[in-house]
């Protein structure tokens, strides 16, 4: 099977490459190989490579910047999906986000829930979802991180080493996602010849404050940090940002887990694994 992976240098892209099934021929593509704002370039790439499967792991993820750069965000998050779907006759996997929801649900979001994004990023990602065909796979995820990537965990490690104290938002609720397991889930859905919408994040519930506290505790235990600093929970209103965030974006992943029959792993378990990898990177 020949698989074209966009966003190949990103956190998920690297995970997909590392966990690709034996016998898979990979065509990893990033900005150096194809400008995803250029629909003609995308179509030419797909036609030249003629892959059996396309996994679109690329996205414009600068949530706040997107508020002033809507054209680029839409070109990558929606236009590129349309171009890929239009040029590729086989199955496509597209990765989307919890930001397509408005955060007002009283329970975890299931795949069929009505979308109502509250930011340019969320709206453009929702638009991208609409370009998928009936046989394609849509995977929504949230709070993605991995060792060596640009993410909340590594930002917290740096700030905890530099600052005497931190304030972290406590009224945005969801669950982190370790990229290697997200990648394995995507390959699992492909192996099952699945189609439709699925959710994936690690098990459990957290605020960004909860996540930060856990990062410090686990990092101290592994020697990644030398000293603990005070971490204070604060409301979102204390840190106004250009883009609105959903206050509650927990994803119900039961449909995915039931299909793959692979059980649930709590986010703190995967955080510990990631930090051990981070420690090995030096």
From TrEMBL:
Residues 1-278 form the RmlD-like substrate binding domain. Pathway: Carbohydrate biosynthesis; dTDP-L-rhamnose biosynthesis. GO terms for biological process: dTDP-rhamnose biosynthetic process. It catalyses: dTDP-beta-L-rhamnose + NADP(+) = dTDP-4-dehydro-beta-L-rhamnose + NADPH + H(+). SUPFAM superfamilies: NAD(P)-binding Rossmann-fold domains (SSF51735). Keywords: NADP, Oxidoreductase. Binds 1 Mg(2+) ion per monomer. Its cofactor is Mg(2+). This is dTDP-4-dehydrorhamnose reductase. It comes from Aurantiacibacter rhizosphaerae.
């Amino acid at each position: 099977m020949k698989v074209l992976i966009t966003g190949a240098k990103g956190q998920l892209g690297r995970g997909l490459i590392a966990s690709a099934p034996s016998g898979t021929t990979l065509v990893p593509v990033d900005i150096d190989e194809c400008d995803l704002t250029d629909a003609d370039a995308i179509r030419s790439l797909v036609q030249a490579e003629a892959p059996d499967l396309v996994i679109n792991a690329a996205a414009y993820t600068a949530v706040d910047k997107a508020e002033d750069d809507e054209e680029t965000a839409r070109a990558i998050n929606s236009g590129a999906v349309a171009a890929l779907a239009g040029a590729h006759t086989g199955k496509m996997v597209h990765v989307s986000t919890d930001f397509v929801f408005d955060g007002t649900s009283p329970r975890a979001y299931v795949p069929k829930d009505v979308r109502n994004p509250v930011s340019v990023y969320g709206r453009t990602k929702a638009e991208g979802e609409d370009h998928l065909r009936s046989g394609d796979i849509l995977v929504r995820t949230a709070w993605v991180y991995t060792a060596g990537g640009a993410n909340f965990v590594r930002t917290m490690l740096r700030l905890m080493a530099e600052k005497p104290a931190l304030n972290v938002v406590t009224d945005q609720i969801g669950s982190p996602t370790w990229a290697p397991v997200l990648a394995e889930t995507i390959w699992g859905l492909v192996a099952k010849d699945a189609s439709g919408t699925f959710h994936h994040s690690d098990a459990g519930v957290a605020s960004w404050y909860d996540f930060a506290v856990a990062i410090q505790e686990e990092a101290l235990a592994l020697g990644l940090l030398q000293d603990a600093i005070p971490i204070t929970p604060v409301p979102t209103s204390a840190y106004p940002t250009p883009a609105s965030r959903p206050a509650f974006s927990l994803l119900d992943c039961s449909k995915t887990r039931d299909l793959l029959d692979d059980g649930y792993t709590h986010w703190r378990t995967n955080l510990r694994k990631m930090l051990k990898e981070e420690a090995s990177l030096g």
